[in-house]
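Reviewers of the previous submission asked for a worked example of the structure-prediction workflow described in the proposal, so we include one complete record here. The input consisted solely of the amino acid sequence. No template or homolog information was supplied to the procedure at any stage.
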Amino acid sequence: MWLVENWFIVIAILVCCAVVAVAIYRFYGLPSAKQIETIKEWLLYACMEAEKELGNGTGQLKLRYVYDLFITRFPSVARMVSFSMFSVWVDAALEEMRMMLTQNKAIRDVVKGDVA
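From that input alone, the workflow returned the following structure tokens.
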């Protein structure tokens, strides 16, 4: 009889348990430091590909292009990482790419399309 009269309390407890279970699952499903390092190295490559395909002055379009590549390459991680965190990672990769382009003529030639 108590269960029939207080069914909403049982439902509320079940919902709370489900929320906690999802939070724990998402926390343990986050990528490890090694996985993040691998993703950041891959992002450098993806940013160079986006620069080669789209050129200068297309920041948001490049971000979208790299994000689409990321979703294809790392679908399980893409569900766990927020777009804002991904954007921070891409900004860091772009800074490293710019530094590489200014320091290495061979890389600049490949990315900018000046290869004969």
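The two ends are 84 Å apart (CA to CA). We consider this example representative of the routine output the project will generate in years two and three.
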